[in-house]
């Protein structure tokens, strides 16, 4: 039976449109770093190499490679961890040209560093791209977080962050950093702006 993250892992990917506390365990990701406006081609290019590798791993059995522990699954959604360059952090208006990001796609537990390298070699031969050398395989553990589903434009996220910040204040939680995670449940290339679903997540700690 195919592992479908929307059904099997709702606690991580399908929160309600109100803040909630969740504990995020350690997961494996393929990642790539970048900076600048996400509306520029460089961002789309990075998404492209991430997905080319993610689908190469998923399709390995069809190409005669059977990783130990492999099971069929739906490729996980694109995620991004977002920050700003120092000079832009205190500005009232977001300067998208000063954004710093790491985008990533989570990998099933059977994916190892060795399997990542094997898949990378396959992609480099089939679809050469200089950006492939910037891909990394890493484990990330976020721990205690506050998350919420944001519905609508990315430019309206500030309103959702305000709701999340108020929730943290009311629940004696401290937001560790304004660096935050976004998980893109909708395909923003094919979904109307008003219908976009994006999980927004802060790492938090108890405010003792």
UniProtKB/TrEMBL annotation:
Signal peptide: none annotated. Residues 18-198 form the GyrI-like small molecule binding domain. Pfam families: GyrI-like (PF06445). It comes from the Bacteria. This is GyrI-like small molecule binding domain-containing protein.
């Amino acid at each position: 039976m195919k592992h479908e993250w929307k059904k099997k892992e709702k606690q991580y990917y399908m929160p309600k449109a109100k803040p909630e506390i969740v504990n995020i365990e350690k997961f494996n990701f393929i990642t790539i770093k970048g900076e600048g406006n996400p509306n520029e081609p460089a961002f789309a290019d990075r998404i492209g190499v991430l997905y080319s590798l993610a689908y190469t791993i998923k399709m390995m059995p069809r190409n005669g490679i059977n990783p130990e522990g492999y099971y069929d699954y739906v490729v996980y959604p694109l995620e991004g961890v977002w920050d700003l360059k120092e000079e832009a952090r205190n500005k009232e208006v977001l300067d998208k040209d000063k954004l710093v990001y790491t985008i990533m796609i989570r990998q099933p537990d059977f994916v190892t560093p060795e399997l990542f390298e094997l898949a990378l070699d396959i992609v480099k031969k089939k679809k050469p791209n200089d950006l492939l050398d910037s891909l990394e395989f890493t484990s990330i553990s976020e721990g205690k977080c506050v998350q919420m589903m944001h519905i609508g434009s990315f430019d309206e996220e500030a309103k959702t962050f305000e709701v999340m910040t108020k929730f943290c204040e009311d629940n004696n939680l401290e937001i560790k950093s304004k660096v935050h995670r976004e998980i893109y449940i909708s395909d923003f290339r094919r979904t109307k702006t008003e219908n976009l679903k994006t999980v927004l997540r802060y790492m938090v700690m108890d405010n003792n």
